[in-house]
Specification:
The protein is mainly α. It has a domain of 112 residues: Cytochrome c-like domain (Cytochrome Bc1 Complex, Chain D, domain 2, Orthogonal Bundle). The chain has 7 helices and 2 strands, in the order H-H-H-H-H-H-H-E-E. Strands 1-2 form a two-stranded antiparallel ribbon. Helix 3 packs across helix 7 and helix 5 packs across helix 7. The longest helix is centred in the first third of the chain and has 30 residues. It starts with a helix and ends in a 34-residue tail after the last strand.
């Protein structure tokens, strides 16, 4: 009899433990119930346009100023992330991506024997060579610049890093590709209005030029109508004679 009670106690304890675990799960599930979100994942606010809706306009780099002072060592270091897909030595084989020797200033489909994507083949009609601007835009965001390209690289958004990289690529078989003269229109702070400046000033003989503020009345002598000397009658001769004494 005592042996039967022993096993009954063991089975009872195991059953009680299992029931307690199930009870705890049910209670905790009721207390800490979570709602399924309507949209999975996290939203990252990284728009291509400004918050106001207007696209941000960024001046293209002034290559005539930046290339001569670029950090070639930093450019070579930046190319390290490209080596998994590209070779850069003269006559080097194509890899996942084409060999890049002489790419700066070269044709878009410059690597013989490489199977370019249909998107890149179509792109050569829009931009036939890899100039500084074209390389800059492609390296910034490859799939945005050539939609459908096989290149899976997300892009290099840092302007200084891209400039150094492009300057170093130019030293690898593209030294003959000319660097343009510095362009004042591409300097930071340059504004392209597209309209000639208007000299909105009013002058009066004998007075300094007074700029006219739009919508504001011009006061003082500058606001008086211009008087032509030919319209003023000369004074009478006797008006200049001294009075009779």
């Amino acid at each position: 009899m005592s042996g039967d009670l022993k096993w009954n106690k063991i089975f009872g304890a195991g059953l009680g433990t299992a029931l307690a675990i199930l009870l705890v799960q049910q209670v905790s599930g009721a207390i800490y119930a979570t709602e399924t979100p309507e949209k999975m994942g996290y939203f990252v606010n990284a728009p291509e346009e400004a918050e106001g809706g207007a696209a941000e306009v960024e001046l293209a780099p002034d290559w005539g100023t930046l290339i001569p002072v670029a950090d070639l060592a930093a450019g070579e270091a930046a190319f390290a992330r490209c080596q998994a897909c590209h070779t850069i030595n003269a006559g080097g084989p194509n890899g996942i991506g084409p060999n890049l020797y002489g790419v700066v200033g070269g044709p878009v489909l410059h690597a013989a024997g490489f199977a370019y994507s249909d998107a890149m083949i179509a792109h050569k009609d829009e931009a036939p060579i890899w100039g500084f601007d074209e390389l800059d835009q492609f390296i910034t965001a490859p799939n945005r610049y050539v939609n459908g390209t096989k290149m899976s690289f997300a892009g290099l958004r840092d302007t200084t890093a891209r400039t150094n990289l492009i300057a170093w690529l130019r030293t690898q078989g593209s030294a003959a590709y000319p660097v343009p003269a510095p362009d004042p229109a591409r300097q930071p702070g340059a504004v392209e209005t597209g309209e000639p400046a208007i000299d909105d000033t009013r002058t009066l003989e004998g007075t300094p030029d007074v700029p006219a503020s739009p919508g504001a009345p011009v006061t003082g002598i500058a606001g008086q109508p211009r008087v032509q000397t030919s319209d003023v009658a000369p004074p009478a001769a006797d008006s200049l004679a001294p009075p009779n004494t």
